[in-house]
Model the fold of this input.
Amino acid sequence: MKDDLNRIRHEYGNKELSKSNVSPDPFIQFQIWFKAALNENIPDVNAMTLATANSNGRPSARILLLKDFNEDGFCFFTNYESKKGNELLINPYGALVFFWPEMERQIRIEGKIAKLESDLSDAYFYQRPIGSRIAAAVSPQSQEITDRKSIIKKIDQFKVKNGDEFKRPDFWGGYRLIPDLFEFWQGRENRLNDRIEYTIGQNQWKLRCLAP
Ligand SMILES: Cc1cc2nc3c(=O)[nH]c(=O)nc-3n(C[C@H](O)[C@H](O)[C@H](O)COP(=O)(O)O)c2cc1C
Done:
C-alpha cells in the first residue's frame, strides 16, 4: 500500500496565480474560478468539504453541496439536528474546501456560519424533488438506525399520512458561511504551488502570497 501511495506523483504546472492576476474581491475571484470549473464539466463541481468542530475543538468534516453563493456568503442545506448541526449550535464557525483536480485548484474558505433565513430555506425545500423532500423529513440524520429497511418503512408511512403536501420540517434547512478568509491555491511545478490568501479587516480585503 505504501509503495502504491508513493508511486502517485502528479506534476502540476499549467496555470499561474499571483496578486496581479487575481481580483481584489475574493467573491469575484471565486466566481471566476467556479465558472471556469463549470466550463470544464467537472463532476460534482459544487461538492465541498465542510469542517466543523465540537466544544472541545475536535474537528469533523464531510462533503456537502454548495447551493448558492453571493456577497453574503456560501449556502448549503442539511439537517439542523445532525452532527454538524449540533456542532454549529455550540461552535458557529466552519471551513469549506473545494478541490478541482482537473484544474489543479483548491479553494479554502473560513468564517462564521449562521442559519439561513427561513424564507430562503423554504424556497429551496419546495423546489426539491418530492423524494428528496420526504427523505429530508423522515431521516434523523446522523442518528443510529437499525437498518435501511426501517427508513424505507418510515417513508412509506409518511407518504400515507402526508401525501405530497407537507411543510418544511423545522429541523431541516440552510446555513450560510460568511467568509472572513479565502485561500486560492494553484498547483505548480516541483510543488512550488501558488497560494493567495484574502483576509478581511476594516471592511477591506487584504491579499497575501503564502509559501507553498
Ligand atoms: C457528493 C456528496 C454530496 C452531499 N451533499 C450533502 C448535502 O448537501 N447536505 C447534507 O446534509 N449531506 C450531504 N452529503 C452527506 C454528508 O457528507 C454527510 O454524510 C451528512 O450530511 C451527515 O453529516 P454529519 O453526520 O457530519 O452531520 C453529501 C455527501 C456526498 C458524498
The radius of gyration is 20 Å. The chain is about 30% helix and 35% strand. The chain has one domain: 10-126+171-209.
